[in-house]
Amino acid sequence: MDQGPGPYAEFEAFVAGAAGRLLRVAILLTAEPEEDAPAARGLLGSALARTYANWRRLRGDDPYDYTRQELCAAFARAGRRHHGGSGVLARLGPLERLVLVLRIYEGVAEEVTAAQLGLPPERVRALCNRAVAGLRPRHAGVLDSGSDARTDPHRREAA
To answer: CA-CA 20 to 30 A from 94: which of 54, 69, 83, 159?
Structure first.
């Protein structure tokens, strides 16, 4: 892939620096295990191909943001096929995963996420809250004996 200095040498440097993080985003979206993530790798390859095709037009724009948007758009188009594997976000639906990854993992502002996904900010907020709640332990607050800490009068509150 070494073509020397040319118009796409910057692209090669970008890929070398950003591919790992972008792959992690793709793996979180597809909910595949890190060691076996063919769908995530396919999404990333497609997003990088689009970035490469538009590289000259990206002057002044952030190529990471552009590639992440392409990655998320490709996932959204194919989201129905990604019902979840065995990854950490597998129990979430595709749209919940998409919102959670953008908002929490990538730190994209709610309004920006909403604009990128074509959703109202309130819907993005609700999806994010539902996703976070869906990741909480299912038995939070329940004691081993089966009694609930809020209703058991013998349970002492930790001070």
So the answer is: 54
SS3 (DSSP) at 129: helix
Helix pair angle (121-135, 110-117), 10° resolution: 100
What is the pTM for the complete model shown?
A: 0.78
Tell me the Cα Rg of the chain.
20
Average pLDDT, the chain: 83
CB atoms under 10 Å from CB of 6, counted, come to 9
In this structure, what token pair is assigned to residue 123?
């819907």
Q: How far apart are CA 98 and CA 124, in angstroms?
A: 10
Nearest to 105 by CA among 44, 23, 42, 49: 23
Dist CA 79 CA 84 (whole Å):
10
Q: How far is CA 124 from CA 26, 89, 110, 148, in A?
A: 19, 17, 7, 32
Task: Supply 20's token pair.
Answer: 């790992």
Task: Report pLDDT for 137.
Answer: 77
